[in-house]
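input
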Amino acid sequence: MAKMVLLPVLLSFLLLPFASLALTQDFCVADLTCSDTPAGYPCKSSVTANDFYYHGLAAKGKINPLIQAAVTPAFVGQFPGVNGLGISAARLDIEVGGVIPIHTHPAASELLFVTQGTVAAGFISSGSNTVYTKTLYPGDIMVFPQGLLHYQYNAGSTPAVGLVAFSGPNPGLQITDFALFANNLPSSVVEKVTFLDDATVKKLKSVLGGSG
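output
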């Protein structure tokens, strides 16, 4: 019993040095010449004000003709100053009729702030598959919990723009359609696991650049 009581105390003492480092180090600008790790990039040795500044979201992103939309990231790979801070950002540009297809961010929650146009958005819960949807207008925000499938599309008659904040420096992105059909997984396997017929699978693979 005494050992069980002492265990949390010992763990606390073991963690104190790490807590001290976290409190005494103001930031850790990513050294992008090194590899990313689960704990983030190693710290850059020489830092300037430019490491904490990024202009890449000021202009409209390059529109993907297939989805008629653009996602411009300000993740740690583009904005090294967010390394270790638990934040990052992006810009969405969605043309009339455009869509950000169903996707997930495995490593972060998302907060969308609409600045222009009308955006229909929603996410699907993991347990009950409950769908939560809203139509968003300029000034509206919506949160998408980490890892859940979600989407956005232009529900208006003018281009839509949104700014996005993430709760991690490298939120990750997996678009469901591309994961299923833009790969070399044999069509017969895709058909089996999606219940789609052969013609539909091959059509989607052709559109999205898959093979097999």
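quick obs: DSSP finds four helices and ten strands in the chain.
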